[in-house]
Design a protein that fits this description.
285 residues; alpha/beta; 2 domains; Rossmann fold; NADP; six-stranded parallel sheet; three-stranded parallel sheet; single chain; binds nicotinamide-adenine-dinucleotide
């Protein structure tokens, strides 16, 4: 048996098509959704992510600015720049690319972003809103994962969902979204004693750890949905996920590939959040 592949680019294309009328409606009112990304330092992976975001926005006819700063930028100067962007009505979304250099406290920086422009959904106000079931901006990766799960024939309501990894940007928010959709959710972390005992009973398995191919086919429930969030370099130097795709696809019902899976969805949901931020300016004032 071979799992059905949940293709990030294919699902992203559908979502982008659905966004077109919303972009046109905003343009008719003189508004072009606009994102400013701040990149501090020269981390190579961050450079790639930022360029991908910029190119996707430009291709969609949206506005995108990338502000690049040297790695010795002070925390104070960064926060001052964010405060200026908060005040600028032509900027709808602000995203600070993580990780930041060690001397800058990411929580302090994220807290400086106006929650109405926090299109990453990382501000505590947005994280709290998600937790009480009234989300404003859903973090892009978990938001994209939910869109991928919608494309399967698995009903989330009543399903056993297991999330491996408990980060603020992926593990915790996807667990909240699955719970809100009616799943019974288990969150595993590095201290979990018998990981396979949990993964084997998952109808929906989300893996967001950052360890190449750590989940193998024998750890997966037959016909389940396996969402691989990890982006790693394997021993052969090629990109790979946290799931061993070769053995997992023999068992799972659906699987997301790496590359070509969740990563593409993350950028697409950033488009969605930025368009929403622009739409909200019409109702706020
Ligand atoms: P993180 O390092 O912040 O968190 C990792 C989590 O995994 C922690 O909660 C830790 O307890 C848990 N963990 C570590 N070892 C474990 C083990 N052996 N068993 C069970 N749990 C274990 O990572 P993150 O920021 O959530 O990212 C995870 C992975 O997802 C990385 O590879 C990252 O590059 C990738 N990622 C991809 C996207 C995308 O768009 N596709 C977005 C964000 C992150």
């Amino acid at each position: 048996m071979n799992a059905q592949i949940l293709s990030g680019p294919a699902i992203a294309e559908e979502i982008k098509n659905e966004l077109q009328p919303r972009i046109e409606a905003l343009k008719a009112k003189g508004i072009i959704p606009s994102l400013t990304v701040i990149l501090v330092g020269d981390d190579p992976a961050s450079q790639v992510y930022v360029n991908n975001k910029h190119n996707t926005f430009i291709k969609m006819g949206l506005s995108s600015q990338v502000e690049r700063f040297p790695s010795d930028l002070s925390e104070k100067a960064l926060c001052q720049r964010i405060q200026a962007l908060n005040q600028d009505p032509s900027v709808h979304g602000i995203l600070v690319q993580l990780p930041l250099p060690k001397h800058i406290n990411p929580q302090k920086v994220i807290a400086t972003i106006d929650p109405n422009k926090d299109v990453d959904g990382f501000h505590v106000a947005n994280a709290g809103a998600l937790m009480i079931g009234q989300p404003k901006f859903i973090p892009c990766t978990p938001y994209g994962i939910m869109k991928m799960i919608e494309k399967t024939n698995v009903t989330v309501r009543g399903a056993e969902a297991v999330v491996i990894g408990a980060s603020n940007i992926v593990g915790k928010p996807i667990a909240l979204l699955l719970q809100a959709a009616g799943a019974t959710v288990t969150i595993c972390n590095s201290k979990t004693k018998d990981l396979a005992a949990h993964t084997k009973r998952a109808d929906i398995l989300v893996v967001a750890v950052g360890k190449p191919k750590m989940i193998t086919g024998d750890m997966i429930k037959p016909n389940s949905v396996v969402i691989d969030v990890g982006i790693n370099r394997g021993e052969d130097g090629k990109l790979c996920g946290d799931v061993d795709e070769e053995t997992a696809k023999e068992v799972a019902g659906y699987i997301t590939p790496v590359p070509g899976g969740v990563g593409v969805m993350t950028i697409t949901m950033l488009l969605v959040n930025t368009i929403e931020a622009a739409e909200k300016t019409l109702t706020t004032f």
